[in-house]
Amino acid sequence: MMFSKLIKEFTFFGSHPKGMRVLLLTNLIYGLVGPIIELFIGAYIMRNSSDISLVVIFQLAVYTGIPLTFMINGFLLNRIKIAWLYSFGMLLSGISMFAMMTLQQLDTMGVFLAGLIMGLSYGFFWANRDFLALNTTKDGTRNYYYGIETFFYTMTGIVVPLAAGAFIGATDKNGWFGGHVNTAYYILTAAVFVMSMFASVLVHRGEFQNPKRAPFLFIKFDRIWNKMLGLASLKGLAQGYIVTAPTMLILSLVGKEGSLGLIQGIAAAVSAILLYVLGRVTGPKHRLLIYGIGCLLFVAGALFNAALYSAFGVILFMMCLLFARPLLDIAYFPIQLKVIDYVAEKEKRNEFSYIFNHELGLYLGRLFGCGLFIVLARYVSEYAALRYALLVIAVLHALGWFMARSILREKELADINEISKAPV
Description:
83% of the residues lie in helices and 0% in strands. It is mainly α.
């Protein structure tokens, strides 16, 4: 029975276009890299410095490099195949980690430069990934696409943190490599580079097409797109905290890197199957509900953390967050691509112009989120930054549900008007 169901799911996956399947498989392999970068870069900085704000400075540099690279990528797409740019972005992530590990001393400038290289990596990866996702899927298949992609990322979120955290913890406990824990980080960095190379080779099997040559830098946009930018800013605001706060909370209140991976694995194991099922059975009409549940889970986790501010509170926060993040992504990205489909057709512009502009909206939110944390950590207290500000961020992010509802309603009205104007 179980085997036949698996065969059915593989058959369903194989029924989709080749480009979509290659993109999903490429992202699966590169997804093995993500948890190492997100979790253990922060842990490495904290282990080798006494300044917790350096973690956020690294992340702020990453966020600064992303929109800059989106713009560079837009010009390069006129000359270089998109698969090569996509590959380059994946390989840069390994180079950034090598740059971090070779620093003699972790100071603000060195950490910022390493983060900037990582931002360039993410920029090339996400700019081309978003465009390829837009052009290899249709609105009716995007819940499935993001559901299975999130399922992949969630499963790697189980295996990688457990394995990497156990490896670092065992190195520390057993005195491997002469008791030099940083050697474990160097080995993980090499693993990141190898996986990035494999993924960068696979992406060339998709035979992807570049966007048409056209201007992509604009200032004025349709009203519905301006609302989408507002939603992107709220998403970016949360990202400024979500990427860094969990690592710092766990290392401060729970334990070392081994605990970090264990907590990630426990919650991710429960959510993985649920997310795949959601992507398989839900459609466009369910996106607002899914987004709302994700917002509520994020707020609930922040409430647990603020009320308890203990190891148990952090575990509850992480469990809520590990459900909330993929739920938010399953709903958010299809909404974004649906709006891009609509406004690109309405304004007769290159789709990449909206992908680039969307990244600027995310950056504004990320800049505010990271900036708020740095100010609080350095000039108020790390305690306030980790306990109370996180709740404020979660509540502000939840306001995005109302904006998402407004966007979808305006899109529905636009569809109705187009139908009424169509000749009978």
